[in-house]
Specification:
By secondary structure, this protein is of the alpha+beta class. The protein is 21% helix and 34% strand. The chain folds into two domains: 307 residues, Neuraminidase (6 Propeller), CATH 2.120.10.70; 33 residues, no CATH class. It is elongated, with a radius of gyration of 35 Å.
Amino acid sequence: MVLTVFLALLLLSLLSLTAAEDHVAVNIAAAYNSAANDGWARYVYWQHPNGKIMVQQRLSKTDDTGPQQIKSATPAKPESPLAALYRPTANPKYQGAHDLFLSYLDTAGQIVDCTCRYQNGEYLDWSTNPTGITPASGLALADVGGTRHCFYVNDRDFIVENVGAEESQLGPIAAKGSRVAATVPVGSTDIHVFFVGKDETSLSSLTFDGSQWVESITAIPNFTSKEKPDIGFAAAAWSDPLIVKIFHISDDNIASEWTFTNGSWTDTSKGMSNPQGTVKGDPVAASRSVNGSGRYIEYFYSTTTHEIDYLAQLSPTSTLFQVKLAEFEVEKPAEPKGKLTNEAIIGLALGLATFVLALLTLYYARKAIVRSNASQGGMGGRWPKMKAVFGSILCVPKPRGKGHGAVMASSGSSTASGGGNSNAVGRTAVVAQAAP
């Protein structure tokens, strides 16, 4: 029993450590352009833990070339956010081409813009430019009328908008470590920016109505716990009337959705599929298009089986279904010297606790067997096989019967006397038998 408990505890510790080490949050970005009136057109990006950034285009129901590494991108900061968008190329010289925009954080935490043109199945004219901006957390992009708007949280926990070389601190204050999501409703020029609020639990937002930033959408209370202000979430929106959807992985590892209609939020998770392998708070992405154009909405996420999957819906009333987009290999970056990760600290704590518990268990097990041997040694009973096994493992000496030892002693006495006095031998034997 003791050995079984010890092995079970050790196995549980190892499994917990392995699971923690194996799972790596994969950041995802989905680039879409509803103005193209094509619900199939998507460019999906994700970041490997080793810093590689992948892109996979899907321009029609059947046209999908698979993932490709963006070789011109500099190494990215591990587990940092991505933001992306695309729009049809305005230059008439490149009819049918798309301009792609990707923003990410390099290993120094600085925002880097990576752009190219996609034409005739090729990514052309890649350009990678550091911006000199180092956000404290969060990263999101929005496009309005051909102008890119970049959003992030600064070191004072304010939401910041960057357009070209101009920065504006929007306020109010966000939770430290909060991510940021931005969306422009289909058929509108308004911008909605979402973030975890100062209370560290609610999902707050700001809306640009064409002239100013206002807090026009109520917050979602208890959206996350104070232990997880950096929860991943994504936003998508439509206009006339205004509909906003927020996607995230909840505390119970389930894909969840909130929908804003008629001036209030409703938890609409109940009708969603329940994908396997999702992890609470992991990064997610969303894309949307005009109703009836192909894909009304798509929610992208990674799984513990190392896949990029998404939930798709063809119309507001249709059922969500799951689609596998790509697989990826977990390539963990080298850990910085002199600093333990949270997973390593947890593993060490579990291992130490298991070791101490095992020592205490073995000590008291040995003590119990020795006590049992002492109480049963003179009774001539059989030593149980299982106890013998434990005794051998714990180095417990096998008990010896007291009567047997006394007879051997009397035999030794008779031998030493050479058999000269039979009465003496008899008396010795009697004394030995009478001994308690």
